[in-house]
Amino acid sequence: MKFKMNSLAILTATTLIATPVLANDWQGEASDAWLDGKLETSLLLNTELNNFKIDTDIENGVAVLTGEVNNETQKELAGEIANNIEGITSVQNNLTVNENYRNEEADNDEKSFSRAWHDMTVTAGLKMELAAHDTLEATAIDVSTDNGVVTLKGNVKNETERDLAVEMAKGYDKVVDVKDELVITN
C-alpha cells in the first residue's frame, strides 16, 4: 500500500509539473482544482512542513490555508509556498501556531514522502554520476540512501577509487553523511 501511495504521489507530482501549459486554458473550478493540487504537491515535497496537518482550498485563485503548525516560521513558509504558485492571486493564511504541536513524522518509523523522494533521487543521481566517471567500475558499487545517509558497498581497485566514490557521495545535494563499506580488491 505504501508503494502504491508513493507511486501515486510521484505520478501526481510529475503530472502537475509537466502540464502547466494546459492550466492556462482551464477556468473556474478546474483551474482552482489544478492550483490546489499544485499547492498540495509543493507542500508535500517540502521537508520542513507536515502537509498532512495543513489543509488547502482554492477559490477563484485565492488560496486558504488552515490547520496546525508548531511555529511562526512554518506558518510563514507555508504562506510563501502558496504565494509562489503561479495562478494563485492571494493567500489567506489561517494556520494556527501551536507550540505544543509535535510533527507526527518525528515519532513515526515510516519516512515522509519528501524524505523518501530525496533518498530515491540521491541514490539514482549518484549511481548515474558514478557510472559516468571513467575511472570507476560503477557496476561494482552499490549505492543506497536512508534519511540522507548514503551507504557505498562493493569492490574498488584501490584507495584512490574508494576516496573518489566517497567524495562524490559527500558532495551530492541532500546527503548528510556517507558510510564507506567499500572493499579494495587487487
Describe the structure in your own words:
The protein has 186 residues and is of the alpha/beta class. It has seven helices and seven strands, in the order αααββαββααββαβ. The strands form two sheets. Strands 1, 2, 3 and 4 form a four-stranded mixed β-sheet that branches. A three-stranded mixed β-sheet has the order 5-6-7. Helix 1 (2-18) crosses helix 3. The longest helix has 20 residues, at 113-132. The radius of gyration is 21 Å and the shape is elongated.
Structure, briefly:
This protein has 186 residues and is of the alpha/beta class. It has helices at 2-18, 20-23, 28-45, 72-83, 104-107, 113-132, 159-170, and strands at residues 54-59, 62-69, 90-93, 96-97, 141-146, 149-156, 177-184. The chain folds into 2 domains: 2-107, no CATH class; 113-184, Histidine-containing Protein, Chain: A (2-Layer Sandwich), CATH 3.30.1340.
Number of domains: 2
Could you describe the largest sheet, including whether it forms a barrel? 4 strands, mixed
Low-pLDDT runs of 5+ residues are 1-5, 18-28, 104-110
Number of helical elements = 7
Q: What is the helix content?
A: 40-55%
Strand content: 15-25%
Q: What is the molecular shape?
A: elongated
Amino- and carboxy-terminal Cα gap: 44 Å
Look at the helices and sheets and give the structural class: alpha/beta
Determine Rg (CA atoms, Å).
Answer: 21 Å
N-to-C SSE series? HHHEEHEEHHEEHE
Beta-strand segment tally:
7
Mean pLDDT: 79
